[in-house]
Amino acid sequence: MNLRVIVLGVLILAIGVLFFLYPTVMTPPVHASDHSKLVRVAPGNYSYFQATLSPQQTLTVSISSSPQAVDFFVMNSSEFATWNSRGNPPADVYPQYSKLNATNYSFTTSTASKAENLTLVFLSRSLSAPNNVLVHLVIDTQTTFLQANEVPILILVCGIALILFGATRKDKVVVEPAEEAPSQPSGGGLAGLLGGSFGGRTCRYCGASVEEGAAFCPSCKRSQP
Fold it and tell me: Which of 39, 81, 110, 149 has the most neighbouring CB atoms within 10 Å?
């Protein structure tokens, strides 16, 4: 078992859970579009235009109508096609964004995971004079950190893999080499105890010092090979 690997795996696993549950904003919203548009609405008629939102984008709309108020509706493409063919404003289409008798009005909406085409419809309430509606649209792009579902899942998998690897890994056992016993000096007598001869040879029988070339030991008088 390797505790260091297990601790690292637990930390990575915790980070993956954190990003999976609480994806955070990495950068401030970036303006993808910011413009104003003047819409002219004929008496007893309507005008419209579309705004396209990509995933992770936010749309902010502000309208100002003069000289009279207008009925303002927000629809998607299919709902607008149905309303345009029947001519009856659907009261249940995006009620949180639509507004009747609007003079000054603003709202914000966003898309989470798919692109969406929104149709902004302005219906005149006057039968005698046209209305001018000034519309200000801002589309912001939200950049999030590790928002994609695959990234937190990949972090979770790596953390679990490290924990399993650390739990099953066996640490290496280091074997210290045995110390060799010091070798004893050869030879006998006083010269052997002191680690050898002082120069020349030693007698093989008594261990006395024998000069080089001498045929007999000066101590025991034995012949030297």
Answer: 39
From CA 205, how far away is CA 222, in angstroms rounded?
Answer: 8
Chain CA centroid to CA 146, Å = 5
The number of distinct structural domains making up the chain is 3
42 pLDDT more than 80: yes
Q: pTM of the prediction?
A: 0.51
- Structural domain span for residue 204: 187-225
224 dihedral zone (left: phi>0; alpha: psi -120 to 50; beta): beta
How far is residue 204's CA from residue 199's CA, in Å, rounded to a whole number? 15
| Same domain, residue pair 72 and 111 | yes
What residues does 124 pair with on adjacent strands? Answer: 70
Spacing of C-alpha 12 from chain mean position: 10
Taking only the tens place, the pLDDT of each residue in 180-217 is 545 444 444 444 444 444 456 788 788 788 777 777 78
The widest CA-to-CA distance across the chain, in whole angstroms, is 153
Residue 5 contacts residue 171 (beta carbons within 8 Å): no
Residue 210: name the closest of 179, 188, 177, 181 by CA: 188
